[in-house]
Each structure stands twice: as C-alpha cells, then as structure tokens.
TrEMBL record:
Signal peptide: none annotated. Keywords: Carbohydrate metabolism, Cobalt, Isomerase, Manganese, Metal-binding, Zinc. Pathway: Carbohydrate degradation. This is Ribulose-phosphate 3-epimerase. Belongs to the ribulose-phosphate 3-epimerase family. The gene is rpe.
Amino acid sequence: MIAPSILAADFANLQRDLEMINRSEADYVHVDIMDGLFVPNISFGIPVCEAAHRHATKPLDVHLMIVDPDRYLEAFRTAGAHILTVHYEACTHLHRTVQRIRELGARPGVALNPHTPVEVLSEILPDLALVLVMSVNPGFGGQKFIENTYRKVERLAALRQASEADFLIEIDGGVNAQNAALLSQAGADVLVAGNFVFSAPDPEATIADLKKKTR
C-alpha cells in the first residue's frame, strides 16, 4: 500500500493535491504532525487535519511526532484520523495509549525511531494495527534512507509471524523507486512517500509506479 505524505504537498494548494491523491492508486493519506519538541520541526496541527479530512476520500493515516500524545488523541480522532500512530519513545504508558486509541474507534499504530529496536514492542504487538519503522530520523522530509531499515523490517516481520499478530508494517522516510520493491520483499506493507511523489513531474503516475514495484 502507498501513503503519500502531505507534508511534502503544496500547502497553498492542499485541496488540489488531496484530489490528486483521491484519483491515484494511493491507499492512505499520511499526515505528519510535528510539535517542535519531540522533533526539531513544526508542521501543522488539528485544523489542517480537519481540512484534509473534508477533501480526502482515502483514510487519514495520522503520525503524531509529538510529546505527550495522549492529550491530543481524541482531538485528532475527531479531526478525521483513521489510523493514529504514536511514537514508542514519547509514551510512558504505551499499552494505555494504544487501548485509548481503540476506544476512540481508530486503528492504533506505534512508530519506532531509527535507533529503537523492534524488539521493544514484543509485548504489545498483538494489540497493534500498524508498526511504523522510521527509515530516516524524524522531523524533516527529503532525508537519505537508512540502509539498516531492511534488516529491521525483516526482524519485525519475523516477530509478527512468531506472535501470530496481523499488524501492518509501514516505512516512512526516503522511500523511492529504488528501494520500494526491496522494502516490500523484506516484509513491509505500507510505504510512505512525500518528496518523491510531490516533486515528481507526474505525482499520480509516480504513485502508480511505486504501487507496481511492490506487487
């Protein structure tokens, strides 16, 4: 599955870019929320998420790169989040956070920074709908893909099989036409692509090409 990140969209023409995603073969709209504390950047918040929800026909895949995400789970769910992903590194009581996301009617995801081993989620994997593996250091688009990600995805896929869980494995950062097939082969189910899609001459065709490479 492909999830274009609107962090790389033209904010002055966000409706236009969302309508392109609607027409495309994309599966989700990825929404990166940054607070300038958990990551050294500020993106956008609840009002933009609400606006995206009004115009998107694909589910919103909301990635909370923020401290104390529990304070905002209900607000982002109300704003239209279908998937709510929090960072392992930002949650003191991760199981409680995951349960709250389910109570709100969203699908819970947990993201891991590049330095965090997948094994830290072993006790909670059956409760998750998605695990997001950061393949760059979070905070900015356009970074170089971290090659160790392939091995990390393979380990996570092995844990999924061993635990008989059914969560999706999502990759975020530096995804392009060169690594899409390799990530899929390693066990990834969802690829987030921002700059690679929105800087392309034909973003819709680029999404279709990424989708084709993962089949």
